[in-house]
Amino acid sequence: MTPTLLILAAGMGSRYGGLKQLDAVGPNGETIMDYSVFDAWRAGFGKVVFIIRKDIEEPFRRTIGARFEEHLAVDYVFQEMDKLPKSFRAPEGRTKPWGTTHAVLMATDAIHEPFAVINADDFYGASSYQLLARHLESGTKDYAMVGFVLRNTLSEFGPVARGVCRVSDDGYLKDIVEMKSIQRRESKITNVTAEAPQIVLSGEESVSMNMWGFSTAIFAQLKESFRQFLTHHADDRAAECYLPSSVHTLIQSGEAHVKVLRSNDAWFGVTYRDDRAQVAESILRLIEAGAYPRQLWE
């Protein structure tokens, strides 16, 4: 079946300071999402589903979604705090979303085929979508994660959080270690926190940038994972149920096998506002090299 692309676009960038999903990085006003959808479309994806907040629906449809409707099917789902399993409700005063596991669950009724999950504000590169499309079209029951080379994912403007992966000899994900303060200092890449000693990394480690491939079987599994999360955290105003954590639990219990698809593509992301100019320059170099047309959707 032709795979679908699910884009997580409901979040506000707290460190970035605004709705970075709508910022232009291409020469004709293209956003990072334009390039993500373009790469997915060229790789064979036939539909895109955006997870957004209800309050940005009108500008999002007009500014982003309308660009793609002539090329592939487009749908929208909304991440809202009160969309919870029966017997649970959001605590008074909570304003944060429930996390990326909850976000993916919002698409349960919109997706009926193998699908990829990506972040709206990450540029993953064309070959990453090709790897994932081939996996999803193969009919395998295994899930997939695109693993990026750590040194290709760092910011020049401050530390970044990364999920550093342990991969088995046969290429399957064993677990993900969350490191919250990775940065390049002179010739070293280190993770430094107040709680733990400095960890020196080689830069060749595979890291998760939240680019996943699933069958629809994942929805029932995530529903149970989220229910278990709420059992312990329903009254917490800040706790979030993250997709990598939910997948990790499924791997440990033997309920899921996740193939790691190693990508050497350069990853670009907008964590800090200063990152945007660098992303724009990197995309312009790709255009000049012939990887993308200057007018993306002409």
Commentary on this structure:
The protein has a single domain, classed as Spore Coat Polysaccharide Biosynthesis Protein SpsA, Chain A. The protein has helices spanning 32-43, 57-63, 100-105, 126-137, 217-233, 243-252, 275-288; strands at 4-8, 47-52, 73-78, 115-119, 122-123, 143-149, 160-167, 173-185, 188-191, 199-201, 206-214, 258-263, 268-269. A hairpin with a 2-residue loop joins strand 8 and strand 9 (188-191). 26% of the residues lie in helices and 26% in strands. Strands 1, 2, 3, 4, 6, 7, 8, 9, 10, 11 and 12 form an 11-stranded mixed β-sheet that branches. Strands 5-13 form a two-stranded antiparallel ribbon. It is α/β, with parallel strands linked by helices and 298 residues long. Helix 1 packs across helix 4 (126-137).
Per CATH, which architecture? Answer: Alpha-Beta Complex
How many domains, as an integer?
A: 1
- The top-level CATH class is Alpha Beta
Report the radius of gyration as a whole number of Å.
Answer: 19 Å
What's the helix-strand series?
EHEHEHEEHEEEEEEHHEEH
Question: Helix segment count?
Answer: 7
End-to-end CA span:
27 Å
Shape: globular
Q: Which parts are unreliable, with pLDDT below 50 for 5 consecutive residues or more?
A: 12-17
Which homologous superfamily in CATH is the superfamily? Spore Coat Polysaccharide Biosynthesis Protein SpsA, Chain A
How much helicity do the residues have? 25-40%
What percentage of the residues does DSSP assign to strands (E)? 25-35%
CATH topology annotation: Spore Coat Polysaccharide Biosynthesis Protein SpsA, Chain A
Largest sheet: 11 strands, mixed
Number of strands: 13
